[in-house]
Amino acid sequence: MPSSLLRNSMAVRNGANEIEYLENALWSERLDESFQRDLAANLADLLPSDRIYLTDWAHDEVTVAVYIDVQQFDVDINGHGILIAQWRITAAGSDVLLKSGRTRLDQTGASPRGKPEAIAETLSALAAQFSRDLAQSIEETKRS
C-alpha cells in the first residue's frame, strides 16, 4: 500500500501528485490492514475453500500463496476511484510462479466533498471487484 495512505485520516486525490488528508474523517484501522482483512474475507466467500490465511503459518494447509503490491488505491475530489496493483500467485512453499498480473480498476462514486463516507464506499467497491478478479485468477491456476 502506498505510504501516503498509511495515515489515520482519509485521503482525497486533488491531482496527479497531490493528496489532501481529511483530518476530521478517520479510518477505524490502517487502510492496508483493512484492505488485507477484507480481501481475505471476500476470497473466503468466493473460493471453494473458506480457509484463507493472512500469513503463511499453516504451511501444510496452503495450496497457493498470493502476493499483492498495491500501487494506488484512492478517490479523487470528483468521486473517481482507482485501484492499481501488481500481484502474483505462487505454489505454496516455493517460488514457482503460477500466474501474475497487473490490475487497474476504475470506479465512479459520489463526490467525497462533505461526504467522506463516499470514499469508503468507492474503495469498498474497488476492493470487491479486485477480490472477484483475483479469485478467478486463483481458480484458473488450479485448472492449469
Shape: elongated
Quaternary structure: single chain
Rounded to the nearest angstrom, the radius of gyration is: 16 Å
User: Mind describing the biggest β-sheet?
Assistant: 3 strands, antiparallel
> Number of DSSP helices?
2
Compute the number of strand runs: 5
| Order of secondary-structure elements | EEHEEEH
The structural class is alpha+beta
Order of strands, main sheet, comes to: 3-4-5
Low-confidence stretches: none
N- and C-termini, Cα separation: 30 Å
Q: How helical, in percent, are the residues?
A: 25-40%
Overall pLDDT confidence = 91
Into which percentage range does the β-strand content fall?
35-45%
Write a concise keyword list for the protein shown above.
144 residues, three-stranded antiparallel sheet, 5 strands
